[in-house]
Structures are given as C-alpha cells and as structure tokens.
Specification:
Elements (H helix, E strand, L loop, with lengths): L3 H7 L5 H6 L8 E3 L5 E3 L1 H6 L7 E7 L9 H14 L4 E5 L4 H5 L7 E2 L2 E4 L1 H5 L5 H21 L6 E6 L3 E3 L8 E4 L10 E7 L4 H8 L3 H10 L1 E5 L4 E3 L6 H8 L6 E5 L4 E4 L14 H10 L2 E5 L4 H16 L5 E6 L1 H7 L12 H7 L1 H11 L5 E6 L6 H12 L4 E5 L1 H4 L5 H13 L14 H13 L3 E4 L1 H12 L7 E4 L19 E10 L4 E6 L18 E2 L5 E2 L3
Helix pairs in contact: 4-18, 7-8, 7-10, 9-10, 13-14
Amino acid sequence: MKTDIQIAQEAVMEPIVNVAKTLGITEDELELYGKYKAKISNEYLQKIKSNPDGKLILVTAINPTPAGEGKTTTSVGLGQAFGKLGKKAIIALREPSLGPCFGVKGGAAGGGYAQVVPMEELNLHFTGDFHAITSANNLLAALLDNHIQQGNELNIDTRNVVWKRCLDMNDRVLRNVVVGLGAKMDGVVREDHFVITVASEIMAILCLSSDMKDLKERLSRIVVAYDYAGTPVTAGQLNAVGAMAALLKDALKPNLIQTLEHTPALIHGGPFANIAHGCNSVIATKAGLKMADYCITEAGFGADLGAEKFFDIKCRMAGLKPDAVVLVATIRALKYNGGVVKADLNQENLAALEKGIVNLEKHIENLQKYDVPIVVTLNSFVTDTYKEIALVKSFCEDRNCEFALSEVWEKGGEGGIALAEKVIETLENKESKFKPIYQDEITLKEKIEVVSKEIYGADGVVFAPAAAKQLARLEELGYGNLPVCMAKNQYSLSDDPTRLGRPEGFEMNIREVYVSAGAGFVVALTGAVTTMPGLSKTPAAYGIDVNDDGMITGLF
C-alpha cells in the first residue's frame, strides 16, 4: 500500500495558472511562487466582490483520537467529488504548522487520494506566511523591549508585560524564559515567554482581517503590556503598526494550490483550534464564496473546539452564514471512545461502538443548537463491517441527521460522490437558520459558562482567583462585549484529556484569562492546556529525511 507522501509525489500536477483559469483568474492576477503555487492578487479580490455568494459548507469532526478521523481528507475528497458531479467547487483550508509536522501529528494535506499538492511544500515553508507572522510578532516584542530600554516613556510595568515572542516549532524549554541578562546595554531583566506561531495573536489577526486597513487597525489595538496605573499599552502606542504591516503585506493574500484531481484549493492562515480560533482566513473564505458555487472549509480538531469557534468567532465577526455542516467520524475512533485499545480496533465490536458513539451524539446535539443542517459522514476503513456501518447510519437518522459513507481516502473524488450528493440534497431541502450560541451583550463570565455547559456538557465552571480577577478587570476596561476563545485540550469534551466518550459530572476549570484585543476576542485557558507544545519522546522528525536526489521521505 502506498503512503500518502508517495501518492502525492507521484501525482501529475497542473500548472497553477491552468487551475486558476478554471476560476476565471488570469496569469496577471496571480503572484507565482514557482510552477504549482501562487498568491491571488488584491486586484482580483476586488474584482470579484460583486459576485454572488456560493454555498458555504463547514467540515468538522468528533474529538480526535489516535485512531484518526480524516477531517481534512474528507474536505479535500468532498471538493473533488463536486468536480466529478460537474459542480464548481473550491476548498478553503488552513496552512499546516511546522510544530506538529515534526512532532506527533505530522502533516495536514489530507490523505490517500484526497490530498492537496504540492504536499511537501505545503507542509514545510510553503509561501512564507508563517515566517512573516513570526517576524511581525517578534518585531513587536523587540520594539517593546527597546522602548523599555530607551527610557520607558509609556511607564510600562515590566512585571506586567503580556506580549510573548513566538516560534513555529514545538519547543517546551521556551515556554518560560528570562531575557535581558548581561550588561546594562543588553536590556532590562524580566521574565518572558514564547507561544507557538499558530497560537499567536498575529496569526488570529491575519485570519480575521478583511483587508489591509482592517489589519492595521487590529494590529494597533494589540495590548502588549500594562503601565504602572494598570492601563493597557498598545502596539499603536509603540509606533509598531506600519513596520508590522509591511512584513504581513504579502502574507495577507490567499494562496492557491490544487488537489490531486486539480480542484482549486485556497490555503491561508493556520491558527490552532485547541489554543486559538482554528479557522482559515476570512479573506480566503469570502473569496472562495465569490469564486465558486460551493465553498468547502473546515475548522480544527473536534466540533467542540473548531466548529464552536467558527460559529461564535469567525462567523460573528465576518458576517458569514454557513449553509450546511459535514460532521466526520470513523468507526475506529468511536470504538476507541468506547474503550477499545488501538491494537484491537480492526475487530468488529458493536458493544464498544454503541458505548463510544455518545461522543458523536454530543457533537450532533451541539451543532443542532446553531440551527445549521447536518450531514454525518463515516470516513471509511477497510476493517469497518456492514453491521457497524448500519448501526451508525441508523443512529444518525434517528437524530434527524443525513448520513453518507465516504471512501475518499481510497478512491478520491469518486469515493465522495455519495457524500457530495447528500450535501447537495441537504442544501436544496433544508434551510440554515444559523445563529451564534450566545449574544455579545452578556458578560465574559456568562459566555464562558454558556460554552462550557452547552457545548462541553460541564455542570459548572470553576474560575481560579487570578482568572476571576482578570475577567473583572477586562470588563472594566471595556472588553466585555467580545466573544470568548476557549483554550482546551482537543481529546476530550472536558478539560481532562483522559475522559473520552461523553463525560458527565465534571466542572470546567478556568485558570487564566487574557484579551487579544486586536483579534477581537478574550482567551480563556482551561485545565493544563499550554500555548507552546513540546515534542514527544519519539517525534515525527526522527523519520523525516532527504535522499541523494533531493526527494523528501517520511513526511506524512
């Protein structure tokens, strides 16, 4: 059996200018990054603004497990299936982070015969967007420390600096560091911190901005520290906005590549969903809606994280209205939620499936609260049995959900035709009445409680004393009308990653709260989740290599 990277490397790609032509994009409206990838010019984005919107389809999933779910694979395969049916579709996805690529998760280009290509370039440096975001973030950090060194005119309290440096790599030793050691000219000694680039506020800002003007306004609102009176100090006050915007100028433009079957794919931005808002850029999604009849996008990790943030943050800010949701599950993952160890997942086990399917049930219930039509799809494995598939199909239909089997990993677009037809049928016969799960006017504490109780299933919320104090202060400063971005582990609906299935009888623990004023949301850290991941004992980096001919191996 061929690996994902072998399939991708053997693919015959179309020149990206040919893919662009299918969308009506001329070569002059592209900024080429080699033969197979390009950025879309601002001129083209302006030209299509008056086009009618296509249908917006969100792909989300149950909570991730070591057994795999295949959300990106399904997104890609669904786009290819629309092409098989003669429909004009485009995919709008996130860019992968280097951290997971060399850590545990590996790449994020889809899998099997449902991938976006060039796979290696996408998973590595791509068009440099993440490097630009990292540079802009760290430029602001350098300007902040330089301001303190050069006399501290803004009276910044060095014990209350909240802006962190970033790096697009899992590196636990950088979580807590001390800077400014050495001579007097080497800066003021203080504690500092790093986050992974995809958890940075600059990443969120890039993905939520509508244009350069909006980007600069958001950058100016970033809170970098507080002064001795407790008043926020912003990036605008540090005179950092212009230089940061210059670094982000090209990164703001969406990237165009293709699937294995030449379906166009917009890949832009990549915030983590467990510690950030988990969606690709607003610019790319809105462009996709103008460029095709169907725009397929995804939100990271399980629906409790990615879909919730897509609905309550991205859609709220951008005025988007999803027309349908595809909820991805696998029989293997559901049996894992039912207590089966990974080594035994290939064996039929209806009892474990019935036990673990409660995870899918909770996600269905959650999505129904947003009043968007749902199609549940099983990402097929050869070990799935007829009885297991029938059980899941009946379970979904009993809950007023459409159901379709997806075989896109094995068969590409051909294996997604049943799913695509079910999605089209749903779009034609069921109306989306989308609404966020909470209103802007309630307090930050109430918003956290709504998400924790309604989406996670918690009995209540416990706020650490520091978090309660931070919430009160943010309300005083005028940030109370912002949505909340919950930072939570992705493996469980609770804040305890070991509690699988559908946990009950638990409380959500909020340990810290801070504002991302430029992004436009308040972050609540739950449990032990961290904004800078570490590498595992055997990271994926150990298996990655380049042969004598320059071909990359081991990247998946």
